[in-house]
Amino acid sequence: MLAGGEGSRYGGPKAWARLPDGRSFLEACVATLLGGGARQVAATLPPGSPDPGIEGLRALPLPEAGLDMFASLGFGLKALLGERRWIRVAVLAVDHPLVRPETVAALAGAPGPATVPSYRGRRGHPVVLDRLLAEEIVAGDLQGPTLRDVLREVGFRELPIDDAGVAANCNTPDALAQALATANRVR
């Protein structure tokens, strides 16, 4: 999970932002990933962050402030590659706390080296990568400068999903309010 940003548009790190039910974005994303079948969850966090004490979460504080998302992704993937037992990884940005667990499961089960969800034609998160693609990113064979650029280079499968959360980028309090209003109308 990518949660290491400063959250300047949100007013602070989005990992600690709260949903109306009281959970932090980080807690909601961990629950989504675990509920979708993830065997382990790791999150890049702002430098110096204490371990948030969320069951099932491996906290990975970034080594320095100001790293872009692709560098944060590489840092997280490098830590995960030390574990031998996984073949696919779901990359979820913490500002997408409304994704449903069944979406993660559907994406993880899709074939191909990379799968991107879309909701009503809008691509979003999480993006699922196979281990070989993750290894190439960490090795510097695929340098971005963004994951979107890497996916354009290697190709990906777009999987239409009936989950507005994949396209709900809650990067400001207003964006969260709008995403919640949309989710309530869709239900």
Structure description:
- The protein is of the alpha/beta class and 187 residues long.
- It has a single domain, classed as Spore Coat Polysaccharide Biosynthesis Protein SpsA, Chain A (Alpha-Beta Complex).
- 34% of the residues lie in helices and 16% in strands.
- The chain contains six helices and seven strands.
- It has helices spanning 25-35, 69-81, 101-108, 131-139, 147-154, 173-186, and strands at residues 41-45, 57-61, 88-91, 114-119, 122-123, 127-130, 157-160.
- The strands form two sheets. Strands 3, 4, 5, 6 and 7 form a five-stranded mixed beta sheet that branches. It has a two-stranded parallel ribbon with strand order 1-2.
- A hairpin with a 2-residue loop joins strand 4 (114-119) and strand 5.
- The longest helix is centred in the last third of the chain and has 14 residues, at 173-186.
- It is globular, with a radius of gyration of 15 Å.
- The protein starts with 24 loop residues before the first helix and ends with a helix.
Give me the secondary-structure topology.
Layout: H1 25-35, E1 41-45, E2 57-61, H2 69-81, E3 88-91, H3 101-108, E4 114-119, E5 122-123, E6 127-130, H4 131-139, H5 147-154, E7 157-160, H6 173-186
Parallel strand pairs: 1-2, 4-7
Antiparallel strand pairs: 3-6, 4-5, 4-6
Helix pairs in contact: 1-3, 2-4
Task: Provide the descriptors you would attach to this structure in a database record.
187 residues; alpha/beta; Spore Coat Polysaccharide Biosynthesis Protein SpsA, Chain A; 5-stranded mixed beta sheet; two-stranded parallel ribbon; 6 helices; 34% helix
